[in-house]
Amino acid sequence: MSKNKPHKSALSKHEGVSQNETTNRAAISKFLNKRNKDFSSDALANAIVKGDTIALSRAITLVESTNPKHLQKANEVLAKCLPYTNNSIRIGITGVPGVGKSTFIEALGNNIANNSSKLAVLAVDPSSSITKGSILGDKTRMEQLANNPNVYIRPSAAGTSLGGVARKTRESIILCEACGFKYIFVETVGVGQSETVVHSMVDFFLLLKLAGAGDELQGIKRGIIELADAIVINKADGNNFKNAQKAKVEFNRALHLYPPKPNGWVPKVLLTSATESTGIDKVWELIEMYVDQAKKESFFSKKRMEQHTFWLHQTIEDRLKSNFYNNEQVKKALHEQLTAIENNQTTPFAAAQYLLSLVSK
Ligand code: GDP
């Protein structure tokens, strides 16, 4: 995918966070400082658990802030919200720009919200650090969903690292759960490792695809099929319907080449037309079937615990790594050691041992 090509997203309507990191940070700080006096972490958490989405937005803004004071407050709010979490179904939705994510999310989302279930839609957008944020740049196609009183839509936080964006999204999920959102969609575009990151924070992972001309399996990112709990071939309408059916057969064949998932689930392939709203109910039935099975066989909570464990280790690794590389002594010695390696005066292993010894004194 072209790095600079703007792409559309389901999450493009709400103004949320601007693309520019500096302006962004300044705006967040201004917003929070102005209101911080009136909103203690207790008041925020109490309002959130009562379903107040203004408080929810404020708390997510705290989570997204880089100001240490805001982060401390965010942690307090999160701690108070934690007892009210874990009651949602988290669904990851990914696919290349143009595949129809916003249209699909609108169709599926309206189905859910019209049944008076509360739905939150969040995004993981690592492209905001790579392309300076294209996910929010477009005008929305989700007018209807955005105006549904049961729906909360929040664009992704801009971030400088995928790890940072992932933390913000995970913490936003917790806040949405505490606010009573039964269903949480996490949308991402297939940039960098974003699918892997989203996969590790959702219960069900859905890959949107388009039918090509018989070469469906080419160009598919390696590994992504293994992540998917369902592959949905969108735009199965008009002249494209036959191709979509063909693609379904090919994907099904490909899926059988993979071993079943550890929980025994065999991913399914479905056809939809998001514009005509066909096949959407089948997707929903499938998700419900998965969740029922997962809860009955208790791999639902097991998977969430594995995800917690993953994120604990990931966060520790990230922090250790950044502490190491930001250490002034290391920064200086790293260059010297690289020169020494180049001149055959040391080995990479001995150099690593020496560099690590600088921080473990
Ligand atoms: P996104 O970039 O993945 O969010 O894709 P969009 O939802 O913005 O859709 C991209 C284009 O595909 C738009 O012009 C949509 O109207 C169109 N589109 C989306 N879903 C369908 C579909 O099921 N059938 C057809 N024919 N067009 C669709």
TrEMBL record:
One of its GO terms (molecular function) is hydrolase activity. Belongs to the SIMIBI class G3E GTPase family. ArgK/MeaB subfamily. Residues 1-11 have a biased composition (Basic residues). Residues 1-22 are annotated as: Disordered. Pfam families: MeaB. InterPro entries: GTPase_ArgK, P-loop_NTPase. Keywords: Hydrolase. It comes from Galbibacter pacificus. Transmembrane segments: none annotated. Its EC number is 3.6.5.-. This is Methylmalonyl Co-A mutase-associated GTPase MeaB. The lineage of its organism: Bacteria, Pseudomonadati, Bacteroidota, Flavobacteriia, Flavobacteriales.
